[in-house]
Amino acid sequence: MTGTILVAIVVVTLAVGLFVFRAIPAVRAYFGYRGKRLITCPETHKAAAVDVAAGEAAVGAFLSEPTLRLTQCSRWPERQNCGQECLQQIEVNPENCLVWNIVSKWYEGKQCVFCHKAFGNLHHLDHAPALLSPDRKTVEWRELRPEQLPEVFSTHQPVCWNCHVAETFRRLHPELVVNRELEPKRMM
Fold it and tell me: At what angle are helices 2-33 and 54-63 packed, to 10 degrees?
């Protein structure tokens, strides 16, 4: 009886070990491939926003190798039956085409055009920074379609959250805003 129990414990331990051994790459694949990505469409050579089937990539990584497939593209439904050649860009460098990383790199080292506060590292739970358009209106970058971002980054300037809120209020309620000239500091 003890020999049977010992064999059962060894079999269960090996099964659990094998499961954990295969589960680690699956979890990495899931978290590595989820999120909106910005790629260059091989057909049009323009930016397109895509989502990868992260769950399928995780299952593929658990079984052998992750297999990538798009679940959404900004060019669909018109071009839904394309060959998905853009997946090669994601396979080569999945982190480089993640929209969040592209935005973070763009804000890195820049200052708000209004208060000149430097942007630090962006965090997902912080208020989203904004952009100042050429017509002097501010807009959060999250309000824009991801495929618009490369063009917008070339024409807009960075704005911190606080200045975005103040400028939006100033634009929407000009009757409630009083502009005062700064007084020189008085010496005591």
Answer: 140
- For each successive 10 residues of the chain (188 residues), what is the average pLDDT? 74 68 78 86 87 82 79 81 83 87 93 93 88 93 91 94 93 86 63
- Classify each residue of 23-46 as buried b or exposed e, where b means 16 or more C-beta atoms within 10 Å of its C-beta: eebbeebbebbbbbbbbebeeeee
Among 95, 104, 46, 35, which Cα is nearest to 71's? 35
Bridge partner residues of 51 (DSSP):
72
- How far apart CA 168 and CA 184 sit, in angstroms, is 28
Measured distance CA(112)–CA(157) in Å, rounded: 8
List all residues 6 or more positions away from 20 whose beta carbon is below 8 Å from its beta carbon.
Answer: none
| pLDDT value of residue 107 | 94
Structure tokens at 174: 């000009």
Q: How far is C-alpha 165 from the chain's CA centre? A: 22
